[in-house]
Fold each of these.
Amino acid sequence: MKRLSWSTVDIDRAGRRPKIVHFGLGAFHRAHQAVYTEAAGEPWGIAAVAPRSTDVVTALREQDCFYTVTDTTTRVVGSIVEALHLGNDAARVGELLASEDVTVVTLTITEKGYRGGPVIGALASGLAGRFRRGGAPITVISCDNMTGNGRVLERAVRESVTGPGRDRVLAWLAESVAFPSTVVDRIVPATSPEHRARAAEALGLDDAVPVFAEPYRQWVLEDVFAAEIPPWDGARFVPDVTPFEQQKLRLLNGTHSALAYLGSAAGHETIAEVLESQWGERFVRGFGAEAAAALPGDHGPYVEQLVERFRNPDIRHRLSQIGSDGSLKLPERWFGTLRDAGGKPLLELALAGWARATEPDVKTGMTDPLAEELATCWRAPDDVEAVRRLLRLVGAPDDVTLPKSVARHLPALRAGRVEFLTHLITSNGAQ
Ligand code: CS2
């Protein structure tokens, strides 16, 4: 079968050039910002930088950076015009970041990317290079699931600026570089070998890096830009993203994480599989109601929509993917509710699911940068103390009774008995 490339697709991309630098070449970027930019048309093209994997760079180059996104149909996307590797192509990345023609940087580097990873260092030195080259204004947009992601990114970049002239670079960053906060939403599981076969069947061409995504997508951006951005049709520009951010992080991502840990305890592999279980849908509604109770406004329709989205059998979103990096995800997804909500029996249950997943002898396939420290918490005299240590390690809000309320669920979860615990759902008043 022929490979996807210039000669096999019918897309005119000649007028696109790299005016956006993107860091993080995973499936999510390819199905989200790259799709919005595709619709923005010429001259908008993306130079996409992979921080670690050379495989995705090689694969994209071999197909002239074209790839497919499958939602209700399979379409070729042509907005990525250059694929780069952060280490191997450092000079080109620096050149692009200094170029006046580049007016936007976007990032999908996951929560852990903001904690001393290589991207922030490269971005900070690239921006310092831009300053020295004349300092054309630019907008730098975090597209990761964090509260105030623009502020988090700005702080991380400022802390990474070093060397002589630091003060002048910092002053320029404050004046000429905008870091809007954003809320991104689209469920896009990591691509599997099965996806490659399905894409090839749909397209009649081989695509080594296809993406499968749900039809839904959303992008809300704080309306502060320093330079020209593409006409991202369908994106929403608002003065303050907070309400969207709370809804998305606490309801969608919060429920996702809860389903990941509890579903894994019950022996499931994907979100759609959990939704098919006897407790899955009820749990989404119950957990949604619990988290929504601490937020202004009516979130009922949003939660109903989540049930539909999570149920989608075409999306095999693995629990091990969602449950990974819990030590960084939970503070964003659960701790706001923990602080703000009154009764939260389902969140306590979810915390027990997470605690169980951190036990050293439990095999979940989930990874975490704090895995060793989390495992060490279990060298405690009893479950309550272990949970107390776990919660402290990840910075949960102080609550003396919480460890006990969480630990009491552990025996049932260890026995894989999640359905038994769903009486909590009805006692919470949700159907
Ligand atoms: C998921 C998210 O993997 C995860 O942690 O919760 O990737 C989720 O699918 C997206 O944020 C949806 O917009």
Amino acid sequence: MKKIFLFALAAGLTACATRTTTIEGLTFDPTVCTEKTLTMPNGESVVYDAYEDIYFVTNVEDSTYQTLNFYVPKGAGQDTPIFFRTYVGGFMAAAACEPNPHDATGRALKEGYVLCIPGARGWNSKVGETFTGRAPDSILDLKAAVRYLRHNDKVMPGDAEKIITDGTSAGGAMSSLLGSSGNSEIFEPYLQAMGAAPERDDIYAAVCYCPIVDLEHADVMYEWLYACTNTGVRGLNEDQIRVSEELKGMYADYQDSLGLKLPDGTPLTAENYTDYLKTFLIQSAQRALDEGYPMPRNIGVVRRRQTVTDIDMPAYLSYVAGTTSLKNPPAFDPMGVLSDFQSPENLLFGDSTGSAVNFTPYSCSCTGSQIDNALQERINMMNPMFHLDQQSDKAQHWYIRHGARDRDTAFQVPVNLATKLMNQGYEVDFALPWNRGHEGDYNLNDLFYWINSL
Ligand code: DHB
């Protein structure tokens, strides 16, 4: 009811300079609650209390997305950890929604966890003619939701000091940002302006499925990995091959600049990267074999009887590239380089007029555009690799998964993220699960075994 009223108010204000609607306070009302039942895939019923459509900022710019839903299964108490699932995908807006028996939200309730499903603005959210969710707005909304839970921790069931975030793809990126940038001062002025609660926004653990991160370096990593397929299954034309080779040529310097280390302390470089990557792929293929999954002979998995001994990378990458087509170079910042195709990332870094922009030095040099300080700061805010080098309160526990045939971003992206976290001493459970593409919330037994063990 309140939401409908606010929506009408926001719509009525579209002709004014500001569309922001102010709501009073951020105090949780424990009396506005409905009992609901979720039927799990096995027929089991989970009964829970639902608290929905709760604004998490006082200056509401977009009433469709700046709310959270909060669910409390029977038996949960003040000490119960809170599973915090964002449905951001494609860097688009995601409204708060109800638990789903088929994903980690339903499973979390069944396991007895308190559940929060926050909404967030994204590149496509709009009020009137104004785009409301260009970078960094999605992460601001999610941080504001975390702050709301802390602000009301005494009156809300669940323990806001035990928030476990979860998301897939762009949502995995959001989860990694929540985990890497807790209480970072870079976000503070924005959160204050939104009327977020004056609280901490660090979290306890981050679950990241196929996080689409390190956007400004992802083009280079992608070409280094997949250029071996350019004239084969990828089928690039001459111009595309030239761009691919130029980007690939920038990889070694970038990888060196990260200063990452292998477990034995050896620097991780472009030279030893393939071997490092193979260790994860071999582990993944071995588990699949051990669990009895079929393993075709012609996809580059080298084995002796039931033991995986090597990965023939060109063959394996051609297999990955063949299961769903690769992105053309530049994969993330393509606008204006060889076509006018606008990626979600070009739009993410555009502004409230709906513009799209280039955000990498390579693509900017092709199109004659610039990365000014304001854009650079927004790029930084969206990158967990940046935050891991900054003053912030990081999550201590990380669960990162990227499918072994997911080609939405290069394997180095999640591998570098996991490695940087391990190098910095955080607890990281990382794998490239076999035969998984670009997807999330799978192998929930593994995930909840990990969460229950925290
Ligand atoms: C997502 C996928 C992409 O390939 C991408 O570039 C950005 C986001 C997604 O699924 O969220």
Amino acid sequence: MSPDILAPLRAPIASLPGVGPRFSSLLAKLVGGDSVRDLLFHLPIDFLDRRHVTTIAAAQPGAIATLRIDIIRHELPEKKSHPTRVIIGDATGFAEIVLFHPARLPQFPKGAKLLISGKLDLFADRKTMPHPDFVLPVTQEQNFPFIEPVWPLTAGIVPRVFRRAALAALTLLPDLPEWHDSSILKSRKWPGFAESFHLLHAPTETIPDEKPFERLAYDELLARQIAFAVSRSIRRKRPGISLTGDGRLRKSALQKFGFSLTASQLQALREIDTDLAAPQKMLRLLQGDVGSGKTILALLAMLRAVEAGAQAALLAPTEILAKQHFSTIQKYASVPVAFLSGNIKGKARGDILEGLADGAIPLLVGTHAIFQKHVEFQNLALAVIDEQHRFGVDQRLAFAAKGAKTDLLVMTATPIPRSLLLTHWGEMDISRLTEKPAGRKPITTTMHKLADLEKVFAAIARAIARGGRIYWVCPLVSESEFLDATAAIHRHATLREKFGNIVTLAHGQMDPSARDGALKSFQAGIAKILVATTVIEVGVDVPEANVIVIEHAERFGLAQLHQLRGRVGRGAAASFCLLLHDDKLSTTTKKRLSFLKQTEDGFAIADEDFRTRGPGDYLGTKQSGLPGYRLADPEKHEDLLPMARQDAILILQRDPKLESPRGHALKILLNLFDQREALTTVKSG
Ligand code: ADP
Ligand code: MG
């Protein structure tokens, strides 16, 4: 394969004829890259139909009209600030073109026969077209954009400029070999790669359907899935440690649990055990709702590592959560467990570091502090990361690097929508906990206006009288933890007035020891109402808590509300979730919140959340649309994802080094979508 075949697409936008330096930098900013390829990847979002050529008499004001006209005369303005008028006519009557920029006047020479298209207005009973969008002599009609793509544009770039650049870019499209199986193309009725761009950027006969969009989306998805598949297969080839055990520690933990694992937990554990036993590195995502029993599984996996004579560590995103895990693990593991966070200092810290280095401490639980440089393990075989999307990829890798062959298990309570799983966690193997431990009661979810606060207070008083315990979650005021805290402090004060000193408070701005104190007092049942910001979102496990009130529920995402709701329903008592919302809710918001009343299925809620709010919240980014994807749209092309994943796996099974003719074409595809790492890996075998 000659890599130069893509050279024309790598050329800078500035090299396109008719695109000056000013426009090229604006265009590069708009399309998110400065190459011809980037420009082509900026696809239209709509198409205007200018095919209906009409007459002046028949043209409707208020709509786009395409007219074949004669230029009758020019009416130059008396004042410079006034527009120039060009009187036009056809067999049915007269109209005028209004030009605010006289520079365009030469496009309309007297006596010319032109084809023009633009929005028609009615001004003082006269049909008027201000600044026609397109003008061509009738002799050049074949070049007229009867179907006009609508591109997303920014200030400074008018459609005409983009079109000129796009048409120039199209001429540079090389003739690339087809990388898709002909059967897919046939059954999906997909056009070729270059053809798709022609159809979209310069449609001629018909308004394009979804086919070219799909084809290009599939190209992008397939390139990514091949890269994922390559990285998965490389990992499988890399030596890891084969961890097997005699089951001694596990058995004793299971006895202490006093419950048996759910079918879903057993299935996930089998998958984890297979990975642990295999002599390759594990990289597995364990996905399951709050309370589905992930931590318990993590513990069992960690105990297996210890049975095999190695060490295991669990990393949590917050100190509270880490402590919670620590106490769970201490309760069930019959071997030493250490806790490490930034707050552990001096001799205590020194002792832990020593125990980790000489292997005396087989299990470690902690926060970020556990992957700092001077934390050395004797033999770290398994690393577990909880709530992994809160950690950056670098941190994840730094953690795994603590043990040369460390297996990695990441857990998330955020049910990640299927499309995101495949697009962003695609290099991992996935286990899902789809059922809750037996004995969990359904949670009754209701919605209340904030104006009805007194009624809510009364309901809470009744719940407390029946021995209940209440979480009161305060609104997310802003990005600022400080403002969130203020709201919580305020609510805490009002509730104290009502209920006295059984109300306590926890928020992110508090001194950690005071916050821990509040959580402990709630856990012990001394406090009956815990007012909190979303610090309780993850990890807090108080089975006696049976009511959760969430203020301004409309400000949260569904998945987040669902996670919060999961704080209750863990004990024997009937549980309730009260969603307090703004008095005025839009119908869509009301519908969105109502979804929570219907179901407790975290995966369904995640998919709904994803549909209504976009992926930003899952990925910790504010943008909508799939970051990192330019042609694929998560909603429209969701069905293509599993197909691309399957396709990628098959391709690499048949041709791991991509040496067949199709393999060569696929290398071009990888190149096109910047999957250089995958390319290098494939080449080096
Ligand atoms: P997660 O980490 O997914 O939130 P945990 O592992 O913390 O879930 O489990 C939540 C609660 O359910 C804990 O109190 C745990 O002891 C309990 N639990 C876990 N698995 C089971 C099971 N199979 N049967 C009954 N209770 C379980
Ligand atoms: Mg947990």
Amino acid sequence: MAIYSATVTSPVNIAVIKYWGKRNPSLILPTNSSLSVTLSQDHLSTRTTIACSADFESDRLWLNGVEEDISASKRLVNSIGTARALRASEEAKNPELAPLSQYKIHVCSENNFPTAAGLASSASGYAALVSALGQLFELPQSTAELSRVARVGSGSACRSMFGGFVAWRMGEKEDGEDSMAEQVAERAHWPDLQALILVVSDKKKAVSSTAGMQTTVETSALFAERVRSVVPARMQAMEKAIKERDFAEFAKITMQDSNQFHAVCLDTYPPIAYMNDTSHAVTRIIHAYNAVKGYTAAAYTFDAGPNAVIYAPKSEMRDLVQLFSYLFPRDEDVLPEVFYTNPFGLVGAEEVGQTVSDPAVRKLAETVGKFQAGAVRRLIHTEVGDGPRVLDQAESLLSQSGMPKRARQ
Ligand code: DP6
């Protein structure tokens, strides 16, 4: 049987100016613009293969080896439907094109990071879905235009359509035509910037972003001020800081915006608390670290959960990995196999959790004191990355007959 297929990988992004609030929940139109850094796909990415054929009987989806019901997700139905409509209009213009828009599809998607890490996978997931559909259907739309399709899957996904530093312009139009992502600077513009993700243990189940932000829009008085004046000014200042590679300014705005986002969550009624004691300790440690260094050396940011993402120049990473692995000992009993992978060769295995080389940082570590083992489960060290990548047939997750090559329970 004739099968058409495409395979891509897409990156995770972590916002430095947060998206929080929708003015139109069904089209996923935000109340404010936002800005993020795309992280390297070598460490965090979603791979997706989509195949279509006249012989497939229904649309099917496998996520990390488990079959899911596509029709149960309005967001999946919307983004696939939008891509099909774009293909259909090309087919209407050119009768020689195979009628792929009529065919059923098989979607197979896997993350290269553990789902248990609690890292947002919807952004990389929907960006991968839409990039693969764009590829499969040979859509002529630009990446910015396709980011609108990713947006209807999950708001933050539109920013994963580009590498480097990416703004999501909120737009003004009611139909959302001008609400899309735009690259502010390429990855190569600021290769010195790296990120260290602290995967923080948490027992409680977080309120989903989708539900949480809606309650914020409806109940928070602080939120109105954030949307009206704070974010527009920060977007400008952040773009300038990125263009000038001004880390001190980048870091200050990043930390302030994370803090305000969580303040707005607490101002939501009933309040939403995403950060836990470990998260708050990390903010204090970063401010103390900057004070010890005598300059702004690192910045934290937190999304809708307790994990910390630390942005810092490469030259700070050895000290930061040593500091955090000393303060947050690994729990030998519960631990995943890997605690820190040392992808850039900056920190020797014997240093992790043992040595803090810099005397001033060591003094800080001793003053703060070690936390309970396992409070941080994992350190993921990564850097700024590129946008979605198209892979060749050999990398497909689906076999010749369009079924998953690997299926898990
Ligand atoms: C805190 O994009 O997950 O990570 O549009 O409802 O799918 P939906 O929400 P989502 O929200 C992300 C919120 C955030 C901040 C950000 O990424 O900008």
